[in-house]
Amino acid sequence: MSRLLFASLSLGLALTLGGCAATPMDGNISASTQPTPTPDQALAPSAAPAELIEVDPAAYSDGFDWFSFKVGDGPTWCTITPMEDRVLCEQNEAAAQYQPVPPPAECEGSYGYQVQLWANTPEIGEIAEFACASGQFQDPTAALVLPSGSKITVGSITCFVEEITARCDNQSGQWIALGPAVWSINS
Question: Is 86 exposed, middle or buried (0-12, 13-18, 19+ CB in 10 A)?
Answer without folding.
Answer: buried
